[in-house]
Structure formats: C-alpha cells, structure tokens
Input
Amino acid sequence: MRRQTLNEKALERYRALFEPKSMAVIGVSTRNDRHPANVIFNKNRLHYPIEVYAVNPSKGRLQGEPVYASVSEIPGKVDLAVIVVRAEQVRQVLADCIEARVGAGVIISGGFAEAGRSDLQEEIAALAREADFPFLGPNCIGMFSPPFVDTNFIAAERIVSPSPGNIALVCQSGGILVDLMIKLTGEGTGLSRAVSIGNKVLIREPDLLDYFIHDDRTRVIAFYVEGFGRGEGRTFLEAAARCPKPIVVLKSGKSPLGTTAVSSHTASLAGDYRVFSAALAQFGVLEAKNETELVNFCESLSRYRAPIKGNIAIVTGSGGHGVLAVDLCSALRLSVPTLPVEAQGELRSRISPSIQAIASLKNPFDLTGSATDEDFAAAVAYLWSRPEIDCVIALLLPYMPGISMDLGARLSFVAKQMDKMLVAYVPHVEKYQILTEGFELNGVPVAHSVEGAVLMAEAMRRWGRC
Amino acid sequence: MLSRKTQALLEAAKGHGWVFEPDAKAMLKERGLPVPCFATAATRDEARSKAHKIGYPVVAKVVSPLIVHKSDVGGVVVGIRTDHELDAAFSRLAGLDGFEGVLVEEMLPGGVELIVGATIDLQFGPVILLGLGGTSVEIYKDTALRLAPLEPKDVLSMVGELKAHPLLEGYRGAEPVDMTELTRVLVLFSRFVMELEGWIESIDLNPVVCRGSRCTIADARIMLAK
Output
C-alpha cells in the first residue's frame, strides 16, 4: 500500500524535533559533569539559541540553574525532550513527556533490543504510537540540527564544529554519523541535519525521507543504512520515488554472512545486496559504494543542481594527473571528448605564446608547468563555450610557479558567469588553503584527490539519469 | 487476484514445498503466459495418444514429488520422434524415484535461452530476475534484477544491463529476440508474482526460449514459502 506523504500535523511534530525552541534534558547528574546528559545540557545552553531545562528526580542545581524533578514541573512549554535515563526508567519518563504535551523526543538511553530487552523497546514503542509522539532512538545520539539544537553527547571541544549547510545525513550508527560529519566538514561541506536513529523503533529512514522532502533547509539527503526491516526497503523507495531531491545511500554489510542452501537459481542469484543495489538504481537513488563516494557525491550534489551528460574536459598543468583522471573517467564510462582540430587551434591561440608550442590540447588539456592563472582561465572559459563539454575538472598543482592563490576565486567567477560545472582538485595541505577556499567559498567543490574530483562529476551525471 | 484454480493448486502443493511442473504451467497459461502445448500421462498408451495430439517431435519429462531438479537425474528426454522412442523414454522415466507419470510436451525449436525468475526479498518484497538461461546461469551470473511490478521501460533497461545483450539483439546475423513479446511476458509475469507474494519463495522459468515472435516458458519451477 502506498503511504501518504506527510500532513501538516506530522510536519509540525517533526519541526518540534528538528527546530525546537525549548528542550528538557532528562537524566542530568548533579555530581558528574561528564555525564552525557550534562554534556548535552552545557552544549546547548552555551551554543544554541534554545531554552534548556535540566531534569532529575533528585533536584538541586546545575550550573546555577534549577534542576526540575520531572518534566511536568518545568514552567514553560517544552518542544523536545532528550532522555538519558536507564532503560527501565524510560517508559515512565516517556509517559511524563506525553502527559506534559512535549512535542517530540530523543531517547539516547541504550539497553533495549540491542541488549536483549526487546520487551522494554516494544513497551515504549506502543506508548508513543498510541499518543502519536515521535521520538528518535533509543540507543542513538540523536541529532545535530543547526542553528537550533545538537543532542550529540560529545563535548564541543572533542569534535570539529560541523558547518551548517544543505545536506541531511541519516545513520543508524552514531559512530558513523559523527565520523561522516567530520569528513564532510573537512571537505568544506555543511549539514542541514545529521540524525542518528539507533534502534529506529518509531522514526525510521522512510519517515525521515518523507520529512526531508518538505524540509527547505535540505537539498541533498544521504543515508548510511545497515539494513531495512521486512518490506521497509520498498516503503523507502516509494518515498524516494516522490522525492525531487537527490538521495545518496551507502549500504554496509554487503557480503552475505552465511549462504544457506538454496533450491532455485533465482534465489541463489538474487542475493540481499544485489537486490538492494538494483532496487536503489531502479528508483533513482544514488548508491555510494564506500565513504569516499558518499562524501564526494554529497559535496557535488550540494553545490550543483543541474545534471550533466558526463562530457568531461580535464585541464591540468601535469600530464600525469591528466592521464590518471582520464583512466578514472573511462572506468566510470564518463566521456572525455577530443575537440575538432580547428577548436584546438582556437584554444592554442588563446593561451600564452610561451606555452603554445608545448601545451597538449587533446583531452586531457595539459597546459604544462609553465602555465599561468591567465592560461587556466582562458582555457576553462573556452572549453565551456564548446558544445562537446559540460563539465571541467581542473587539476591544480599550486607549486607550479605561474599559479597564484587567486586562481580559485577567479575560476569560480568564470564558472558562475557561464553557469557551468567546475570541479577542482587541489592537494589537501594547509599551505594551499587560500586557493581551496577561493573555490569553496564561491560555490565550487574542491576534491582532495583526483579520484574525488571524478566522482563529483559522476554524481551529477548519475543524478541526470534518475 | 489469484484464480480459485491457482489457489487450489498452490494449496495442494504445500505438502511438497514446490509446484509440479504441469501445475505450474497450467497457472502460467491461465495468466496469459506462453507455455508449450503440454499434457500429462500416467500410462504408456496415454502418453502415445497425448503425443499424437501434440504432434511429434515431443519432449517427455518425469513427474515425481521426489524430483525437483529433473535434468540432474536424467528425468528429461528431448527430441522424441516416434511411438517407439516415446515408449523407450516412458520406460526409462518410470524407473525414477517417486514416478507418478510423464509430462509430454511440444518440442520447441532452438532459440535464445533466457532465465526469468522471481524471489521475495525480505527488505524489498517481490523481485524479478532476467538473465542468460540454461544450466550454467550460476557460473556466468549474467543477470539483472528489478523490483516487481515491472514497467516496459524496466525490461529494456534489464536487457541493456546484460553482458549477453548482443545475443538478444541478433548477434552475427542471428534472428533477434522479439522485444515486444519479451516485454509483454516479463510485465505479465511480474504482476502475477505480486499476487503470489505470500505463497512463494522463488520461481525459475528456465529456459524461456525466444525465437521469432515467440518467447516460450520451456520449464517452470515454483518453490513455495516455508
């Protein structure tokens, strides 16, 4: 049966979850400042524009603020409850939250199905379903939703500050979530929401997908999936089919744990992962085979909207880098077209006389180590004017003497002016940060490997096929 | 909706865990899926009269609750041209485990042999498989998968995904597979599979023999859900 898309009431509940104005942290300690609940309390009180209330039955004071015995004693309205109490106590706390008309919850506590206590898990699921009370978890780190809230219980000084952006990231595993947040941040890519769903008792991947379709802050939706429940994969894809935004999925656990004897060819050939992968492709979801693909696909999709056909021009000052990129393109069946002879002549006339005799102007376009900023700008602009090309990959080696740190911004402006796709590769060292930021702060993605740059082009080509 | 007849056949097959080939073909035929002319016979004389009706050459296959993989035990005799050859085939098949009779079938002319399959995936539900058929499918693994139900465009993209697709398009002067007919068969089959979801574990239609404007299901194995 086809599920309906979210109605206004459901959207409001998700807004209470992701954009709360007030929050209760239930289970703070008055003795241990490193308690996860205390970390969440401190972090949000200091860094987010949200009213934070501490809750613990033993009361007292925390950082000069009152600790409330129960959520019902909090004087103001509470949008979000973050629950960090022992598994056995979660049911009562949840009932209190429902009673106090809290909008939504994040249950950080572990000790449920993953510890053999499916009974406790089913109890809280039934209670919340009955009351139509949405919650993330249990056994999760909740979410990071800038600039509203961050329920991740890692102290601010222990993690890079993720930048706000337009990618929503959903992981079953909290560890992978934090790791991917760090990696995306390292690529200069920002997040709109980062969600760990843990045991995903109530809110699951298809629910979040439905919400992110409506979420104006989100343009790209990425999932790290360990597995779907019975029939849940199909529900997810039905939601994907009505999603106008690109969806990227990384599946872990691709190899079968043990093959049981199968009685038909089809059962033997249609393994879990093969079906998973084929189904994603059938419904226009981009499958990332590994973390590198996920990060590069997301970066590219977050910066560009228009898909490409995949006709790539590779511009470089190093022949070796150019050939490497061509190999990677051909492995993905991205086309690397050669220009007609007259066009090569025209391009040659536009670059400095000093390199006209030595530059190789077949694709890859090797402008040589003597090329300058002007040569790169002229070559890239000319290539975009050609109908054979819909994406330029610029492989930049900043140690070349003719290249300045201004080249990033300069090429980005040309790209914006011509509304074409540009991807750059710059070696990832602090020394070249101005060059990298010249691209990134002007909307052009920079990969930190040649492979990454090719994957960014591949993302926009695959998005076009959906 | 499954017909009452199909439901009865599935119900009756539950004891073995799989559907006998004549019953499987009857179900497929009822859904408009192309199967060869076939009949079952419990005796030699019956086999002869059925063969005369169908017309030589014919194929004879063992029907036995103990034999799922017929060709592994010599349970299939092809190219039978005379009453005499049919008698010999009958005698041989009658010696196999659990013999209950024979399936006498029109001998299909050679063509491109495909496998069309179905399985019920835990996460995604009914899935359709298309590949190069025959007994070596599990060696080459040249197959494409899609969630059921299929749309015509899915069939085209499945064919395009096969390494063997030039074989379907008329390799080195051979006759190409009729894509309109193959599409019709796969789309129809995928809709049937949607209705079989609660009943089956997997289905192999292998081979499906494509020649000229026909794509005929030469063998059908329906394994039931445990």
Chain A has three domains: 1-140, 159-303, 307-465. Chain A touches chain B at residues 227-234, 237, 262-270, 272, 274-276, 278-279, 282-283 (CB under 8 Å).
